[in-house]
Write a structure and sequence with these properties.
Mannose-Binding Protein A, Chain A; 3 domains; two-stranded antiparallel sheet; 4 helices; rod-shaped; KLR_subfamily_B; transmembrane; transmembrane helix; C-type lectin domain-containing protein
């Protein structure tokens, strides 16, 4: 009986010792695991070669993208400056062209005015009435020296309306540009045209080229 109890005690003690050994063993395992975990936690992460290549590639891509954005922004700025400069130049050219157009328009209007004035002057006739008396030939010579000729009366209106008042102060008459010097009795104007009609006093026109009268010179403004 005592042997059996002793055996049980020894067995129990032995089991306790084994349990203590197991506990200490497990504790050592836990401490070793915690130490390795803590060591790994404090150590820097180490990347493989593939990860390093990926990181460098990403950095290169970012740098390229930034450079591309800078180049694009520079191009946009240059384009804006170019457009602004061209717009300014075009505006100045347009203003200059408008000024030239206005000047040309004014010159055109002035030329038209001058043409109108010249046309009116061309249609005007200047008369010179002498204050002295000469023969017909001398009278015609005086007119020729003035760049004119003895007056040619083309119609009754000219004779009555334009010349009548000029002849009122003359009681003897005026020399005019009609003559029969080539053929007696065949009257012609000094420009060579035939006398087809006239508004004369009785017995007019007649000769008497040697008589002295006042005369009227006529000059057309061309």
């Amino acid at each position: 009986m005592s042997d059996a109890i002793y055996d049980d005690v020894i067995r129990t003690e032995s089991e306790r010792a084994e349990m203590v050994v197991d506990i200490y063993g497990c504790a050592d395992c836990v401490r070793d695991h915690d130490f390795r975990t803590e060591t790994n936690t404090h150590q820097p992460l180490q990347h493989t070669g593939s990860d390093s290549v990926k990181i460098r590639s990403s950095r290169v891509a970012v740098v390229c993208l930034v450079l591309l954005c800078v180049l694009l922004l520079t191009a946009v700025i240059v384009l804006c400056v170019h457009i602004y400069t061209n717009t300014t130049n075009y505006t100045q050219e347009r203003d200059q062209l408008l000024t030239k157009i206005n000047n040309l328009t004014e010159e055109r209007d002035q030329l038209l005015t001058n043409i109108t004035n010249l046309t009116e002057e061309r249609n005007q006739i200047f008369y010179h009435i002498s204050s002295e008396t000469k023969s017909w030939n001398e009278s015609r010579k005086d007119c020729t020296e003035r760049g004119a000729n003895l007056i040619i009366i083309n119609n009754r209106e000219e004779q009555v309306n334009h010349l009548k008042f000029k002849m009122l102060d003359s009681k003897t008459g005026f020399w005019i540009g009609v003559t029969d010097i080539d053929v007696e009795g065949s009257w012609k104007w000094v420009d060579g045209s035939n006398l087809t009609s006239g508004f004369w006093a009785s017995r007019e026109p007649n000769g008497g080229r040697e008589d002295d009268f006042k005369w009227i010179c006529e000059k057309n403004i061309l």
